[in-house]
From TrEMBL:
<dbReference type="GO" id="GO:0000139">
    <property type="term" value="C:Golgi membrane"/>
</dbReference>
<dbReference type="GO" id="GO:0006621">
    <property type="term" value="P:protein retention in ER lumen"/>
</dbReference>
<feature type="transmembrane region" description="Helical">
    <location>
        <begin position="36"/>
        <end position="56"/>
    </location>
</feature>
<keyword id="KW-0653">Protein transport</keyword>
<feature type="transmembrane region" description="Helical">
    <location>
        <begin position="92"/>
        <end position="112"/>
    </location>
</feature>
<keyword id="KW-1133">Transmembrane helix</keyword>
<keyword id="KW-0256">Endoplasmic reticulum</keyword>
<dbReference type="GO" id="GO:0005801">
    <property type="term" value="C:cis-Golgi network"/>
</dbReference>
<protein>
    <recommendedName>
        <fullName>ER lumen protein-retaining receptor</fullName>
    </recommendedName>
</protein>
<dbReference type="GO" id="GO:0005783">
    <property type="term" value="C:endoplasmic reticulum"/>
</dbReference>
<dbReference type="InterPro" id="IPR000133">
    <property type="entry name" value="ER_ret_rcpt"/>
</dbReference>
<dbReference type="Pfam" id="PF00810">
    <property type="entry name" value="ER_lumen_recept"/>
</dbReference>
<keyword id="KW-0813">Transport</keyword>
<keyword id="KW-0812">Transmembrane</keyword>
<keyword id="KW-0931">ER-Golgi transport</keyword>
<comment type="similarity">
    <text>Belongs to the ERD2 family.</text>
</comment>
<dbReference type="GO" id="GO:0046923">
    <property type="term" value="F:ER retention sequence binding"/>
</dbReference>
Length: 215
């Protein structure tokens, strides 16, 4: 494992912990897209179906369990524990616009036409677009709390670091995973505009990130 992969995993973990702490401490999931969190839970579930059949390393197994547990804990807090604070009206992105093409693409573009491989491919493609309901929600409301933007920043940083990881592995090992790389690049592109707003507004001390209103 190289430093980019490790830093990416840490950034991913930090993002999820930030989100959980935000919900727990404020006793509210306002501004959080439950749909994005459900998609991420589906991503981890379909990707880690090999948890009990394939052992790679203790680190790998522990991280799989942690991401699964935290993703479902987040969904529980949003839809059960603090459901009265969840704003479903603003979380209105239609998931079928993501799920249908992702499912179709998973059957067409994969490394082996087997259930586990198709589900793994599905998880990779779905992760690249799972954040869209959250970004759509921010666009719809026109602003986001700083703690929510911190979560999105570390989530985007995780993907950027994974791109560095793939570049490193290609140059040192000759390894290239076309599906993962293309999906990761697509996901990172979604964050580019957000990164600009994050640096220019949130890091300069504003309590919330307000999107510019169209002229």
């Amino acid at each position: 494992m190289n430093v980019f992969r490790l830093a990416g995993d840490v950034s991913h973990l930090v993002a999820i912990i930030i989100l959980l702490l935000k919900i727990w401490r404020s006793r509210s999931c306002a501004g959080i897209s439950g749909k994005s969190q459900v998609l991420f839970a589906i991503v981890f579930t379909t990707r880690y179906l090999d948890l009990f059949t394939i052992f790679i390393s203790p680190y790998n197994t522990i991280m799989k369990v942690v991401f699964l547990a935290l993703s479902y804990a987040t969904v529980y807090l949003i839809y059960v524990r603090f459901k009265n604070t969840f704003n479903s009206e603003n979380d209105s992105f239609r998931l079928e616009f993501l799920l249908v093409p992702v499912i179709g693409l998973s059957f067409l573009e994969n490394y082996a036409f087997t259930p586990l491989e198709i589900l793994w491919t599905f998880s990779i493609f779905l992760e690249s677009v799972a954040i869209m309901p959250q970004l759509f929600m921010i666009t719809k409301t026109g602003e986001a709390e700083s703690i929510t933007t911190h979560y999105l920043f570390f989530l985007g940083l995780y993907r950027a670091l994974y791109i560095a990881n793939w570049v490193w592995r290609y140059h040192t090992e000759g390894f290239f995973d076309q599906i993962a790389v293309v999906s990761g690049v697509v996901q990172t592109i979604f964050y580019i505009d957000f990164f600009y707003l994050y640096v220019t507004k949130v890091l300069r001390g504003r309590g919330k990130m307000t999107l510019p209103m169209p002229v």
